[in-house]
Each structure stands twice: as structure tokens, then as C-alpha cells.
Amino acid sequence: MSLTLDQVRKVAQLARLELAEDDLARMQHQLSAILDYVAQLQQLDTEGVEPLAHPLPVQNVFRDDELAPSLPVDEALKNAPARSGDYFAVPAVFDTTGE
Fold it and tell me: Which of 28, 33, 82, 97 has the fewest CB atoms nearer than 10 Å to its CB?
């Protein structure tokens, strides 16, 4: 399937991409090649093939939740760029003046 330059421009606009004219020609060729490959895949007989979300068996790899001693506050904050008591000091994000 060969895309026109206008179709490539529309796809670029939808993707919020600004492409130069030489980039449009390259994208026209590359996107057309991708669509041709998808058309090939659509010709495969997938009757009886079970849909799956992942090609490999997936299992939970989380460890058991076990109690462990916490890092002391001074150790945790020793490399902090700014500190406020026992906490990391960070710039304010919200306007706290109440206006």
C-alpha cells in the first residue's frame, strides 16, 4: 500500500510532528513499507491460534515482604541537597498564599 504525501502530512499532523519536505518523502516510503508488511501479516491463517498477551510464561517474581531495619534519618538525608529537620526540603509546588 503506497501512501500519498498528503496522507503522510495528515499522519504527521495527528502526531504533532513538523516534517521537512525531504523528511516527508522518506516517511512516505517507510510508512508504506510498514503498511505493506502489515498487509502480509493479515494474510496468515490464525485460525485456532490462542490470543496471548505475552509470548513467554509470566509469573510473579516479587519477594516475600519481610521486616528489616530502616535506614537512620541522618544516613538517609546525608546526601540531600536541602534538609528541613528530619525531611527532604523541596521547592514549593502549589501556591500557598491562598489567593
Answer: 97
Dihedral sign (CA 33, 18, 22, 10): positive
- Residue 83 gets which letter from DSSP? E
Angle at 97 between CA 91 and CA 99, to 5 degrees: 130
Q: How far apart are CA 96 and CA 78, in angstroms?
A: 28
All structural domains of the chain, each given as residue ranges with its CATH number in brackets, are 5-42 (1.10.20)
For 37-95, what is each residue's pLDDT tens digit?
999 999 999 899 888 888 888 888 888 889 999 999 999 999 999 999 999 999 888 87
State how far the alpha carbon of 35 is from the alpha carbons of 2, 8, 27, 98, in Å. Answer: 8, 12, 12, 55
Calculate the alpha carbon distances from 45 to 1, 42, 48, 49, 92 in Å. Answer: 21, 8, 9, 9, 58
